[in-house]
Automatic annotation (TrEMBL):
The keyword Iron applies. It is found in: Mitochondrion inner membrane. InterPro entries: Cyt_b/b6_C, Cyt_b/b6_C_sf, Cytb/b6-like_sf. This is Cytochrome b. It comes from Toxoplasma gondii (strain ATCC 50611 / Me49). One of its GO terms (biological process) is electron transport chain. Keywords: Electron transport, Heme, Iron, Membrane, Metal-binding, Mitochondrion, Mitochondrion inner membrane, Respiratory chain, Transmembrane, Transmembrane helix, Transport. The lineage of its organism: Eukaryota, Sar, Alveolata, Apicomplexa, Conoidasida.
Amino acid sequence: KLCKYHHFLCSLTSQLSYLIGLIFLQAAFGLMELSHPDNSIPVNRFVTPLHIVPEWYFLAYYAVLKVIPSKTGGLLVFMSSTCQ
């Protein structure tokens, strides 16, 4: 008769070794099945990715910053709308 502690320890050890094996395979061979496909797209510093959208409570400020082409002017309008 096996005690429950021995069964629990064997089960936990096998699960932990399986997890460590998966982490090792991911680190050693760079398996990409677990990563999002957007992570493979080359970076363009001047274009914001389309899937990045601000939260709903920032949409008004985001619209103000998108309308004003100058960075300084956008910052001044943003600060004046915030400080009202």
